Every structure is written in structure tokens, then in C-alpha cells.
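Dig into what follows:

_____
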Amino acid sequence: MAAARHREIAEKLRREILGGKWLSPGNSFPSERVLAKRFGVSRPTITLALQELRGKGLILRQHGKGTFLTKTACKLGRAIGLVVPGISYGEVYPVICREVSRLAQKDGLTLLFGDVSSSDPKVRARRAIELATRFADEGVSGVIFQPIELVDDSDRVNRQFLSVFEKAGVPVVLMDNDIVPSPERSSYDVVSINSFEAGRRVAQHLRDSGARSVHFLMNPNWGHCLENRLLGVKSVFGGAVRVVDIDPKDLGAVRKFVRMRPRPEAAICRNDDFAVHLVVALRKLGVGVPGDLLVTGFNDLAYATLLDPPLTTIHVPCEAIAQTAYATLMMRLADPSLPPRECYLPAPLVVRGSTSRSMRRAPR
């Protein structure tokens, strides 16, 4: 019972520390006597609770002076920021944001979510820069950031965003992709999937399914993760890859796509939502999937299984990405001297009916 009590007290104090309750000019922490009186327990019970907090690197005892918060505790006692421009257009980002929010709440941390959503990419970029300044002024301890994309000068905008935190000494963990093209590497921690390997895996499956060429369907100014995915596709098909900028909701554009020569055999779509709209348009045009065209998506959200036929796609581990990005930021706050980390999570291929070899018609 006593053991359970000291752990209960340690957890309550940990949450108070992370919530910023004990931040003060000297960052002093209450004495054992004060805490024993507060919780109505013996001092040995409080001693055990404080040992747990010391083991977590949250407090330290200075002989003759008392107990104080560590530098790590002071950083964690402030809010952390989350900036995800893709939440207004990317199907995986709401899942990731919810998981980061859950983790912060579980740890008693204040999470500042930066809403930069807009249908206009330039507006998203401008809001992100404004948000960076506000977060830095409010003294956030660290930030998880999905780099800005879909604008012509995204590299410049991302560097401008990051420079605000660099000047303020605030660590940033990049999520989804780096701010520089492969094989370059920035000085930031990056948490993502291996986009090159994911593209290669999809392409190899399509080749095994009989495709002699592929069309990579995307939009301009997408981030470096999509560029790396394209490189993975080209590692399998070489020059037999054609990049097409298309709106799958535009029936006329889809009609022009299927009439291209040589006739498309396989389409790699940038995500599942894109693929679903493409298949719907193809059905209206009398083009069969997979009979006339093999189609793949990306992300493996729930509705990929509801499509007829179900969609072949890459499974993106949204919750694991959120958990790894959060843990990486906590490690960075605890030890800023750590070298930059690259965390690439597994993203397996999920094969379904949209690329079934048995239903594919002979190439014409």
C-alpha cells in the first residue's frame, strides 16, 4: 500500500512539474517536510516519491540548498507547439494530430496547436510564419512541424519558419519529410516513413502485376517526401515513368489521361483520396479497374477497403509517426547536444483488388 502511495504522489508531482506549476525564478521545489504535510504521509514515503522524480531527470538536490527543477523539467514545464499545415488537405494529419494531443495530455503538457489551415497554400505559408513568431514569443519549449509544401518557394518559407525558433533556441522535430531534397540532410530530427522504399515497393508490385510502364499522378510543388517516392518508382521502371499533374475530380482531365498514348497501364496516386476520386471518374468513363488500369493509393485509410474494387495502397502508420515524433522531441529537450536523428518507420504494401493480376486484361 505504501509503495503504491509513493508512486501515486510521484505521478501527481510529475504532472504538476510538466504542467509548469513549479516554475519560478529560482525553480525551487518543496521540501520533503512540506510535501509530507501536504499529502498526509510519512517523510520516507515522500523520499521514495522524490527518488522517482530524480530518476526521471526532473529534480535534483543541492546539498545545503534544497531541491530544484532540472533544466529538462523547466523546458517541459512550458508548452510544446504543433504546426501541421497539411491538416487542411492531407488525410493522415488529423490522425497524427489527435495522437500527439493525447500524448501531451497524458503527460500533463500544454499543447499549442497552430491552426494555419486554408485552401490557399500561400495563406498557409504566411500564417505559419506568423505562428512561429507567436510561439517563440510565448516561450514554447519545443515544436513538432510538418514542413510547408504546395508553394513555389517552399524551401525558403520553411527556412524562414525554422529560423525563428533557431534564434530563440527552441528545438524543432520535422515530421513527414526533411526541408532539403535527398540525399541532402538538414540539421533537424526527422520522423517519417522511407518514401523512396515505399515508392520502390509499389512500383515492384505493379511490375510483378504485368505493368510495363506507370503514370505517377501528383500535383506541383509537393514536398520532398513525394519526390523521394517518385525516385523509388523510377528505380524500378527507369524511363518508363510519366509524371502527370491531374485533378481526379475533373472528368475531362481524367478522360484526356486515359486517352494518352501509349495508353496508361498503371497509375500510382499520391494518396487514397486521390485514388478513390480517380476510380469513380474511370467508372463513369467505362474504364475498368483493374481490368483496363491498375490503380494504387497511399496511406491506407479506412475507406480504401470500401472502394470497389478495394484499393492497393501503402500503409502509413499515423499513430506510430505521432508517437515517435513526440518521443523524439522529448529526447531533444532532455539533451539538445544529441546528433540529428532520422527515424523511418515501416510502411508495408497492402495488396487488394485494384491491382489484381487475375482481373487484368491483356495490354493493348
